[in-house]
C-alpha cells in the first residue's frame, strides 16, 4: 500500500490540534505543529515573539522542522501519517506578512509532496488567542486565504472539513482517505 502523508491546515484557532490529539488517541500516527515549540524555545532565550522580531529566522527554523517531519513520515512504518501544518504553511505566512524569502523555501514546497490536504475554515466560536497565538480573528481569516492560495499554487486540491464536533470532523477526514 502506498504511503499517505496527510496534512491538516487552517488559520490559527480552527481546531487542528484538537483533531490531531484525537487522531493520536485513536492510534493514528500524527506529527504535531512545531511552531509553538520554536516560539517557546525562543522565549526561553529571551525573544518574546521570534516570528515578529525575526520572521525569516523563525520561518527557516519552521521550514527545517517541517522538512524533517516530512522525511520522518516517509520512513514511518505506518501507512498513514497525519501532520499538523505542512511545508507550504511557511511560505503562506511569509506572504501574509509581506516578507520575501530565499528560493530554497519554494523549492522545499515543490520537492516534498503530500498525499492530501485537509483545510479547516475560520470558526469564530472556537477561536481563542493565547501566549503563542498573537493573531486576532480577522487576521486568522486573512491567513486562511493565504493558505488556500499557497497550497493551490503548489498544485494541491484542498478538502474543506466542515465545522462540527471533533469526532465528526475526524470521521469526515477518514472517509475521504
From TrEMBL:
Coiled coil: none
Domain NadR/Ttd14 AAA span(s) in chain numbering: 6-169
InterPro entries: NadR/Ttd14_AAA_dom, P-loop_NTPase
Protein name stated in the entry: ATPase
Lineage: Bacteria, Pseudomonadati, Bacteroidota, Flavobacteriia, Flavobacteriales
Amino acid at each position: 500500500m502506498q504511503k499517505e502523508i496527510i496534512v491538516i491546515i487552517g488559520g490559527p484557532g480552527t481546531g487542528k490540534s484538537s483533531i490531531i490529539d484525537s487522531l493520536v488517541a485513536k492510534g493514528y500516527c500524527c506529527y504535531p505543529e512545531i511552531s509553538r515549540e520554536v516560539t517557546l524555545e525562543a522565549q526561553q532565550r529571551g525573544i518574546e515573539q521570534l516570528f515578529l522580531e525575526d520572521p525569516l529566522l523563525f520561518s527557516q527554523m519552521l521550514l527545517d522542522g517541517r522538512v524533517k517531519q516530512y522525511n520522518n513520515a516517509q520512513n514511518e512504518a505506518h501507512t498513514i501519517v497525519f501532520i499538523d501544518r505542512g511545508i507550504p504553511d511557511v511560505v503562506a505566512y511569509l506572504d501574509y506578512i509581506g516578507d520575501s524569502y530565499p528560493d530554497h523555501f519554494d523549492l522545499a514546497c515543490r520537492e516534498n509532496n503530500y498525499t492530501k490536504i485537509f483545510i479547516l475554515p475560520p470558526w469564530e466560536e472556537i477561536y481563542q488567542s493565547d501566549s503563542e497565538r498573537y493573531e486576532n480573528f480577522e487576521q486568522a481569516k486573512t491567513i486562511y486565504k493565504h493558505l488556500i492560495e499557497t497550497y493551490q499554487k503548489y498544485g494541491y486540491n484542498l478538502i474543506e472539513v466542515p465545522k462540527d464536533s471533533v469526532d465528526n470532523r475526524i470521521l469526515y477526514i477518514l472517509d475521504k482517505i
